[in-house]
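Appendix C reproduces, verbatim, an entry submitted by the partner laboratory led by Prof. M.T., so that reviewers can inspect both the input and the predicted structure.
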Amino acid sequence: MKTKICPICGSKMKRNGFNSSGRQRWRCKGCNKSETHKRDNATERFEEFLKHHFKQPFVL
């Protein structure tokens, strides 16, 4: 299995159970973010990255 990488901080993610619809849940080892699916929107990922690293909202 290929290692999943966090879209926010770039750390490795680990399996973290399943959500109510049965999809695999993942948790980042670095920033502790949880997700159940792959993000498709690059702008959204960039905004999350900025919020995570600068602790304030950015509007593009």
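Residues 42-54 form the longest helix (13 residues). Additional entries are available on request from the coordinating office.
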